[in-house]
Design goal:
2 copies of one chain form a homodimer.
Chain A (H helix, E strand, L loop, with lengths): L5 E3 L5 E11 L4 E7 L9 E2 L2 E3 L6 H13 L6 E7 L10 E9 L14 E5 L10 H15 L16 H12 L5 H11 L2 E4 L17 E4 L1 H7 L10
Parallel strand pairs in A: 2-7
Antiparallel strand pairs in A: 2-3, 2-5, 3-4, 3-8, 6-7, 9-10
Chain A binds a DNA duplex (30 and 30 nucleotides) through helix 4.
Chain lengths: 235, 235
Amino acid sequence: MNRQQYAYEYPHAAVATDCAVFGFDGQNIKILLVKRGIEPYKGLWALPGGFMRMNETTDECIRRELHEETSFLPSVIEQFAVFSAIDRDPRERVVSVAYYSLVRQSEVVGGDDASDARWFALGALPDLAFDHKEILAKALQTLREKIHFEPIGFDLMDRYFTIPDLQRLYEAILGVRFDRRNFMKKILQSGVISESNEGVAAPASRHAGRTPKSYTFNKDVYEAMKGNGRFKMEF
Amino acid sequence: MNRQQYAYEYPHAAVATDCAVFGFDGQNIKILLVKRGIEPYKGLWALPGGFMRMNETTDECIRRELHEETSFLPSVIEQFAVFSAIDRDPRERVVSVAYYSLVRQSEVVGGDDASDARWFALGALPDLAFDHKEILAKALQTLREKIHFEPIGFDLMDRYFTIPDLQRLYEAILGVRFDRRNFMKKILQSGVISESNEGVAAPASRHAGRTPKSYTFNKDVYEAMKGNGRFKMEF
DNA sequence: ATATTTTTGCGTATTATTAACACCAACTAT
DNA sequence: ATAGTTGGTGTTAATAATACGCAAAAATAT
């Protein structure tokens, strides 16, 4: 059987997708990486992703690859850049369509040390395959720019959360500190969250101090504020 | 000679680039289109663009194609989306990396009615080839979102311009009206422009009313404000 | 138990930014 | 000249951002 069965008049690059999956453990931003099982870069860590098939779009491709490699179907994916350096893959010319995704860490299996998918803190990244370090850096930059004028959290926080938790998320992404009381006022009067009487984290498992109230996102208000330029979280 | 000389183990999509080139004539936003000289969609208007070669990145590709089709080398291009619908090109599977660009209309030859490159007002678009109508719509949406938190104008206005001209640009892009006097204050105290004693449009060619002052962009301040989230132009 | 520490929630004074509008200046057309 | 039109400056009121003071609630220490 001929192994070179697909022929074209002009040379073609391969199209692939890669995704920077961000999670939040309540303290720090984490990134989901998978260990490569084949050459090239076998044994190194990489962003989940893979080659596009002829019967799928790039969006469908990255969702399929994420599911295959991390057993997870993300709700939010955003395409943010294309990487097309000529020698970025040693096998052949590969153009990668890059995405980022925000997920609740608890929803992704990973974590198991023996597994080939694991969360890494941004400050403790291993060496990455291909140009994935560059892709990750650009993904993080895009996320940081976006957080200024779009509410973020819905996809990273649990269904029920506290305002101090949400503040820690913003501070972790932006690398700054907010005034507790002003953050609270701002987020409350934006209307994206409202108080909930349903469960908050186990009372005993908390730190010292007063138990914070439990909140949940108003999905309608939240969605309406995406991209309309009216939400602001300065630094 | 074999016309199918490039063979691969797996099927490959072709990679192409397309660019929505925006211009401003002092009154309305215009878009630069080229008339297709070959099938498919021969004779229809399309966004400038074409297939990527093996020795160039997508950025280099779109710059080359723009130069070939419109005799213009743009200073600013931004990659904003990828279009990968399976049947978007009748010839073969094509994944298009989409860009937008902002140019001074005067710098682009086009314009000649007989030529195959022409400016069109957004309200008077012809039928477009492929999915280019969709690409253009998304480009415009991206531009409108970006204008909220990035200064825009440097690439669309002439070197010397007046504040009322700049206001008309913002109003044309956003489709809203600003208060003349507040717009002026806001743009001036942002520091992105400063007064110039050099030429403004010929005094006789103006409308009735007082002759406006001439301004020019402070390139350093302008660049610094891109993407730092500090520039705001609300509506 | 009681005091101490920690953290949350609410309020208030100060400052900065936005928004609305009155008024004068400069130019054109008649 | 006079009316009509457009550009530039200033003033004020409403709104939002910022910086804290202080008490309530819950865990920890004694």
